[in-house]
Design brief:
three-stranded antiparallel beta sheet; four-stranded mixed beta sheet; 12 helices; alpha+beta; single chain; 3 domains; Endonuclease, Chain A
Length: about 300
């Protein structure tokens, strides 16, 4: 679980773009959070995620152009793809470049070099830059990240994107394609953690806190919840809750900063009404619950299940 001193993940609406102080506050970002090291000030009252927007791409393009046989990898690749990475990574630091295992790693200022074996399809082009594919970037990070963080990133790879917002209709990867990739790298450093993470990755989590909530619930002894639960599973217009248990009519929602917008609150109110009218027990959790490891949240769900089965 995330500790009290570690900055929480930013809402996805702020990824890969510049945003004003007013927009950040509206999305639930505090003035103190704006001073964290993963956010940089571009101009007066204008900010962006450190290294995740234009700056990272410019540096990656320049350094990879000087090393045409190399490709951007690890957390640098993950950030270019717009994936969440732990805030402990300083993305404003050196660019991670990998070369074929047949060649020594690049050694020069501004670069963290790696000598790696990459299979066909594991290196792609993004805006003309050679980059580890999203799934391969996930594997690159398996050496250093915890199983939980790998699950958080992995859920992002498996989630079905919204075409209107992300410009793509297919997920970055499937469980099958990732399992096949792991079979090609049986001796990769971190392969044991990667295999363990893959077992717990699921389709349906729209944000890192949702994944952490699911994992916390299981940690605290709850059955694994369903994701994107609807009162009527056969009605695509029925608004879904993030997680829940259909058999006990329990719905669970994580409300992040994006839920503070007027438009999202209107959608949330409609969803809340649908579940309440249908007689479901309905829970909303937020950042404060995230910071204490969802312990109190899990206890509330335990009690709700006990009431339903009594």
């Amino acid at each position: 679980m995330e500790g009290m001193r570690r900055p929480g993940p930013l809402p996805s609406v702020l990824h890969g773009t510049e945003f004003t102080r007013a927009q950040a506050l509206e999305a639930g970002i505090t003035a103190q959070r704006l001073r964290a090291r993963d956010i940089e000030r571009v101009a007066r009252n204008v900010y962006r995620m450190t290294g995740c927007a234009e700056g990272l791409e410019i540096r990656a393009r320049a350094l990879s152009s000087a090393n045409p046989e190399a490709w951007v990898s690890h957390q640098s690749a993950a950030a270019l793809h717009g994936l969440w990475v732990p805030s402990s990574y300083n993305l404003a630091g050196s660019i991670h470049l990998s070369r074929s295992h047949r060649h020594p790693a690049v050694r020069q200022p501004g670069i963290t070099g790696h000598s790696m074996r990459a299979r066909e399809g594991e290196v792609i082009r993004v805006s003309g830059i050679r980059v580890s594919s999203p799934a391969r970037a996930w594997l690159d990070l398996a050496r250093d990240l915890s199983v939980e963080d790998l699950i958080v990133i992995g859920d992002q790879l498996l989630r079905v994107p919204r075409v209107a917002f992300e410009g793509r209709a297919e997920p970055w990867a499937t469980r099958g394609s990732m399992a096949a990739m792991l079979l090609l790298h049986p001796n990769f450093q971190g392969i044991v953690r990667a295999r363990a993470a893959l077992e717990l990755m699921r389709v349906g989590a729209d944000s890192p806190p949702e994944t952490r909530l699911r994992l916390a619930m299981m940690h605290w002894g709850l059955p694994e919840p369903e994701l994107q639960v609807r009162t009527d599973p056969d009605d695509p217009w029925s608004p879904p809750a993030d997680l829940g248990y259909r058999r006990w009519k329990i719905a669970i929602q994580y409300d992040g900063g994006v839920h503070l917008t007027v438009e999202q609150q209107s959608r949330d109110n409609l969803r809340d009404e649908v579940f309440n009218v249908a007689g479901w027990s309905y829970f909303k959790f937020n950042k404060q619950d995230l910071l204490n490891g969802f312990a109190r949240a899990s206890n509330k769900i335990h009690l709700a299940i006990a009431r339903r089965v009594a």
